Amino acid sequence: MSLDYSRISGNLAALHQRMAAACAAAGRPPASVTLLAVGKAQPGAALAAAAAAGQRDFAENYAQEALAKIAALRPDESTRGQARAGLRWHFIGPLQANKTAAIAQHFDWVHGVDREKIARRLSDQRPAALAPLRATRARPVVAQLQAPMRPLSVRTS
After folding, report:
1. Where residue 150 falls among pLDDT bands split at 50, 70, 90?
2. Which CATH number is associated with domain 7-155?
3. Which helix (H) or strand (E) is 52 found in, with range?
4. Contacts by 59-65 with C-beta closer than 8 Å and gap 24+?
5. Where are the domains of the chain?
6. Tens of pLDDT, residues 65-87
7. pTM of the model
8. Strands 150-155 and 141-147
């Protein structure tokens, strides 16, 4: 069964127009806001259609599902890298210690680091050929802090 992803491009364009209007109303440049396309439970073909429409930042919260999509969207000879080069991958949600190696190797951002152990493992397991997570694109590790009675997520910069 083939699914129709033809509306993704138009939906993204409409969403970017709404974001630009919200930024203008708030007095901030549209480039200061990043749209994360969360691919949870979406097939790789939907993400490929979004990438072809210009979406560059994708977020996943299941490591195994994410790794398959990252591999499927990696530039190759058949695509000549078109629409797939320059994609940025964000891991969102809780991160188990046994998943840190895969996350460190394949993701550009990690949101919700909630323990020092996880931060150390991500740092230690990051391949030398890749920029450190703490220094890539203005420190793309987002720490999760627990204040009394309410959670708070903070993006470090």
Report:
1. very low
2. 3.20.20.10
3. helix 44-52
4. 59/89, 59/90, 59/91, 59/92, 59/111, 60/89, 60/90, 60/91, 60/92, 61/91, 61/92, 61/93, 63/91, 63/99, 63/102, 63/103, 65/39, 65/40
5. 7-155
6. 999 999 988 876 554 444 457 89
7. 0.78
8. antiparallel
